[in-house]
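FORM 7B - TANDEM STRUCTURE REPORT

SECTION 1: FIRST PROTEIN
SEQUENCE AND TOKENS:
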Amino acid sequence: MPHRVAVLALDGVLPLDLGIPARVFNEACTSDGTRLYSVSTCSIGGRPVRTHEDYKIVVDHDESLLETADTVVLATQEPSKELLATGALPGDVAAALARIGPRARIVSLCTSAFLLGAAGLLDGRRATTHWALCDALARLFPEVEVDPGVLFVDNGRILTSAGGAAGIDLCLHLVRLDHGAAVASAAARRCVVAPWREGGQAQFIEHPVPQDTDRSTSATRQWALDHLADPLTLEDMARHANMSVRTFTRRFRGEVGSSPLKWLAQRRLSHARLLLESTDLPVARIATACGFGDPVTLRKHFYAYLGLSPLAYRRAHHAPEPA
């Protein structure tokens, strides 16, 4: 049975963001094309929803859909003046959220984090929202640890994302958690988006496109991906880019949003996950092929980023027919 995803659309919903869950989850399929998720959209009372733009949308379900969902996604909606002033939910919205099952995973996209905050679901938790409203979220809900510098936050049952494309990153993160990197990467290819952006990556990068492409770090990033098995250092990467370490680090962070070595570790980890899923290679071979050097270092990275060992990850996500 497919994993049931219910998307709640409220007045003020952003149409682009409303379509993100269905677009991503519907592209997560088995090798024979069977969809792994069933995505449905609901509104309060099943009524048409006024969007943030100049039109309304019609949905086929009311909020009773939330009772049977495995994952509930609160689509991005513009916080009302009342919510921003009082931190309180309207009665019908509070009643709808109360219908979510106790085991359901709850996801907020962008400013829908305000709804979770008002419902008390973020108390004592770390969370994020659009960078422009992080201060407002922190002031309104002081019990919440607001992090303005990340794309998304995974607290287990409760997950929050930053604005815009960060919602895509969070949905792909969920696919990766549920079904592994290979399925998530295939879904990303069909959506024509990047298959992996770490949740801890910065929301706002000042200079995403360097003015002088000859001084971009993109060629060095590709070179590093082609040499993951090598014991690359920061000095090696700077030398390849024909820059000083200081200049390379500054430009790399400006283009990517993270440090070179953190980015490299994430790429190595992503490749290791793919090999664990799709091959029968021993863990020691995978550690060498991904540049970790030995199984101990690989195991430390898996525990740090994923909370489980490489063997446990393989048991959970190994494909039935290894490549």
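SECTION 2: SECOND PROTEIN
SEQUENCE AND TOKENS:
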Amino acid sequence: MTVLTFTLILLAGAYAAGLLGSLTGLGGGFVVIPLLTLALGVDIHYAIGASLVSAIATSSGSAAAYVKEGITNMRLGIFLEIATTIGAFTGAVLAAFIPAHFIAILFGTVLICSAIISLKKKSNEVNLKKSYLAEKLKLDGNFPEAGGFVAYRVVNVVGGFGMMIVAGIISGILGIGSGALKVVAMDGVMRIPFKVSTTTSNFMIGVTAAASAVVYLQRGYIDPAICMPVVIGVVLGALSGSKILVRTASAAWLKYLFAGIILILAIQMIYNGILGRV
């Protein structure tokens, strides 16, 4: 395969990855890594490096829009980034000592869990219970709705912080944003409205990926020849996916369709990991 052919295939595949990631809400990294390892035979560590760089690019673009709209809780995001950055750096260091086939199995397992989480019905229920620690750290906030601003309170700060460390470790090992796990921590544990948890998670993903990317860069696992078409393709795919969601009256069937595709990719990753083909 020539360099040009490889680049064009990778660009087209990354576009599809960004499209799928946008429509399912899981991010392009979940598709980029199986594409590179299973279809193109790229070493999983280089695939993770490319996925981290694409996560930084996509998060930076979309996060800016959500911050401008006033939905993102920046103070909460920056506080929780302490946990995810520590976890991401730890995970990236550990990844060098974990066999590639085990990473593939873990990736497939996390992918299945994330796909199931993405299909669960979301709630924008507002919590009004007070938390001493959240009040001291000024983590409570509000977000705009049709009738004005809706105030909410944050609870179980310690539990959410602990879950963010775990999400960061998984992100560092697998090269994904772990957005679904962050949303679970904020939505399920800290009782933050879903709209705020998803946008704040998006705000955090880029920083988490950057912490891991530093380690991968030092080890030589970030190859510009792979990263460039991946970043361009994923960003364009994510933009297309967001437009499709806006124009489609009911996107539920799209989410189920593409979640099914992602589940197939996850099973393939686990199968190849068990056989040691990755």
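SECTION 3: OBSERVATIONS ON SECOND PROTEIN
The chain has one domain: 3-274.
Residues 3-274 form one domain.

SECTION 4: SIGNATURE
Preparer initials: ____
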